[in-house]
Amino acid sequence: MLLRISNRVGLFGVMLLTLSPLLAAVAYRGDAGESFSFLTHTLSELGRYEVSQLALLVNGGLFFGGLSLVVAFVTRLWLVSGVGFQAAMYLCNIVLALSITAVGLFPVNVGRLHIDAMLFFYLMTFICGVLYCTALWRHPPSRLGLIPAMIAGGLGLSAFCKEERDLLLMDRYAFGLFGADRPNLWWPAFEGWLMLLFVGIWLLFALSVIERADN
Q1: Which of 6, 36, 156, 168 meets the CB 3.0–4.6 Å disulfide criterion with 28?
Q2: At what angle do helices 112-137 and 146-161 cross, to 10 degrees?
Q3: What are phi and psi of 139, to 5 degrees?
């Protein structure tokens, strides 16, 4: 019963993380009056106050969605028996969810705190992906979940190791780089959305498929 409730709370968190950026993207108008594109704009830009019309929705979705995931994984950690890789996976997921919460709490307008929160999220995506894959490898029926975790972890490590990582997360960096005319594809932005997509798939897998394995 408690496991089922934690599962619903976690799914609610994933829903918040998914719907808030999608709704904000529809209403977005950038510095040059341009519409939002997942190929050329970042999540940080969606959460930028004074430009993104629904920045509060995005940052609130990240904050409360992350907290919901913290509650879900804390409950699972409390219920799991032993201290093996499964417990380590849940513990790492808690820290990952806390990093998502920090991104919502510190939007791009606050500068350094936002950069630190995003870098922590990148690092935890990689570390948690490694532990998640190791835990899944011990449960043969669930090995399909290795794919999104491996991709997300690789993208997280790539984003964390970029030489220009701090610049990419600075307020108005993209506008200063391109002005009103952005390229059709800006890889750092697209890479970030790909990472978030596969993190979402992996979290859904952890909350739904793993529940059936636990039962």
Answers
A1: 36
A2: 150
A3: -125, 85
- Return the amino acid letter for 118: M
Residue 124 phi, psi (nearest 5): -70, -30
Q: How far apart are CA 61 and CA 19, in angstroms?
A: 8
pLDDT digits (tens), the chain, 215 positions: 777 888 889 999 999 999 999 999 999 988 878 888 999 888 998 999 988 899 999 999 999 999 999 999 898 888 776 566 677 778 888 988 999 999 999 998 888 899 999 999 999 999 988 887 877 776 655 566 788 889 999 999 999 998 888 878 877 777 677 777 888 898 888 999 999 999 988 888 877 755 554 55
The residue written with tokens 């977005």 in the block is 28
What global pTM score does this model have?
0.86
200 class by beta-carbon count within 10 Å (0-12 exposed, 13-18 middle, 19+ buried): middle
Non-local CB neighbours of 79 within 8 Å, separated by 6+ positions: 2, 3, 6
The boundaries of the domain holding residue 142 are 2-214
Residue 14 Cα distances to 20, 140, 213, angstroms: 10, 25, 20
The dihedral built from the CA positions of residue 63, 64, 65 and 68, taken in this order, carries a sign that is: positive
